[in-house]
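Researcher: Quick test of sequence recovery. Tokens follow.
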């Protein structure tokens, strides 16, 4: 992925990035424009107050100049902040609807937007221009839309692949647990294949239909689409409308956000 524009402060020192999700926290260290040393840790570690040890081990030999996080688990955030303060005496920049500056927000209730979704929108807009679309294949599949003005305008949320297949297994007597994988045919010859076809091929059909509808609503025949998340590679493999899979998308948006915090991160560029 090549940048549309360089960061304001690409020569700054190391930046520690944390994307706190419901199950895992994804960590990255950035040097200039590059995010390296990726890992993930259980989000529960913050609540068990184990975060300080985890961060010390992860950043061994490196003192971050800046630290940034986006979090969908509010109780975990203060423990991350305390660990960072104890280890390095740094304040942690938290990406929220109040601190975002790279995109505008045209949304009725900005506080309800997941910070990870804002990070995805920042990254896709920065690297691909506006309008643009980020699709995150996580526990839920989320679509995040930036319009032609560069404003976050909303999105779509659907159940994730594993959530759907796990529900079928748990709620029915005869349907088994399955491994989500590529099935070359659309005719299942056993129960497992039939379920997998429904999940993988069905999801591709849903994604294509939603992208087509968004193009119409945005009046954007050309709409860059970037995928990220656990099943992004699998599902995007046969969807020509998805131009790129970028597993670092959320951390890249978070890096852009913290690099651009000059002036202070208390006002967003545009709220409506």
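Model:
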């Amino acid at each position: 992925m090549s940048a549309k524009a360089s960061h304001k402060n690409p020569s700054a020192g190391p930046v520690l990035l944390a994307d706190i999700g419901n199950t895992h926290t994804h960590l990255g260290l950035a040097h200039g424009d590059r995010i390296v040393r990726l890992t993930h840790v259980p989000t529960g570690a913050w609540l068990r107050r184990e975060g300080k040890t985890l961060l010390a081990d992860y950043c061994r030999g490196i003192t971050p100049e800046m630290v940034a996080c986006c979090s969908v688990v509010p109780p975990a955030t203060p423990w991350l902040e305390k660990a960072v303060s104890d280890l390095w005496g740094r304040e942690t920049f938290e990406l929220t609807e109040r601190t975002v500056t790279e995109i505008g927000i045209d949304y009725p209730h900005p506080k309800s937007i997941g910070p990870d979704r804002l990070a995805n929108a920042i990254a896709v807009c920065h690297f691909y221009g506006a309008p643009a679309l980020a699709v995150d294949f996580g526990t839920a599949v989320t679509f995040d839309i930036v319009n032609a003005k560069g404003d976050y305008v909303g999105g779509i949320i659907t159940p994730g692949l594993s959530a759907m297949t796990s529900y079928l297994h748990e709620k029915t007597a005869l349907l088994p647990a399955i491994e989500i994988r590529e099935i070359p045919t659309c005719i299942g010859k056993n129960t497992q294949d039939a379920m997998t076809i429904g999940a993988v091929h069905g999801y591709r059909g849903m994604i294509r239909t939603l992208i087509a509808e968004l193009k119409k609503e945005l009046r954007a025949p050309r709409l860059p689409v970037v995928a990220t998340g656990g099943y992004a590679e699998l599902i995007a493999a046969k969807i020509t409308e998805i131009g790129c899979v970028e597993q670092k998308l959320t951390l890249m948006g978070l890096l852009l956000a913290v690099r651009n915090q000059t002036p202070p991160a208390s006002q967003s560029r545009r709220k409506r």
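The helical segments are 44-47, 51-58, 77-88, 115-128, 161-171, 191-218, 232-236, 249-259.
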